[in-house]
Amino acid sequence: MAREFDPSAPLKPHTKVRSVVDLDGVEKFSDGKIELANGVTWQRYWVRFNNGEVVGHVSHGDVIPVKFWDQYLVHKERTEREAAEAEALAAERAANMEAGGGDSGGGDAGGGGAVVVNGVTVPQRLLDMSAAARIRLGA
Q1: How far apart are CA 45 and CA 62, in angstroms?
Q2: pTM exceeds cut of 0.70
Q3: 102 vs 112 pLDDT, higher one
């Protein structure tokens, strides 16, 4: 059984990786190998890419292990889809707030329940307050 892709797991030296952003002298989606891994609160790496470039201080989120590439693409697509859905839901709620005249001030007003964003449950009351503030500030 293949291991699950964990975007937060630190990488070890000699791990084959692929860049997901343009780096100095290296194009996006270039393959390479980690030469040195360091950092405590900020994981960063020295990576030797296949084009001969060695790039230091590559952030953890800028490279993905090649063996997890397909899982990364699925994870990225799901995250983008969830973000787009959350944005559309917030816009719909903001439109409803404008049409409805605002919140009555009660607990979880709106009745829509809570929304899960990046694995964290955000209460409906906070989403409504945020939408009202954006309307009030014209953002």
Answers
A1: 10
A2: no
A3: 112
Amino acid in the structure at residue 2:
A
| CA–CA distance, 136 with 74 (Å, rounded to integer) | 37
Query: Do residues 13 and 34 touch, judged by C-beta distance below 8 A?
Result: yes
Q: Cα angle vertex 34, ends 32, 40, to 5°? A: 140
- The domain spans of the chain are 16-69, 78-137
CATH class of 16-69: mainly beta
Q: How confident is the model at residue 4 (pLDDT cuts 50, 70, 90)?
A: confident
Residue with tokens 């950092």: 39
Task: Dump pLDDT digits (tens) for 19-51.
Answer: 999 998 899 999 999 999 998 888 999 999 999
What SS3 string covers the chain? CCCCCCCCCCCCCCCEEEECCCECCECCCCEEEEEEEECCCCCEEEEEECCCCEEEEEEHHHEEEHHHHHHHHHHHHHHHHHHHHHHHHHHHHHHHHHHHCCCCCCCCCCCCCCEEECCEEECHHHHHHHHHHHHHHCC
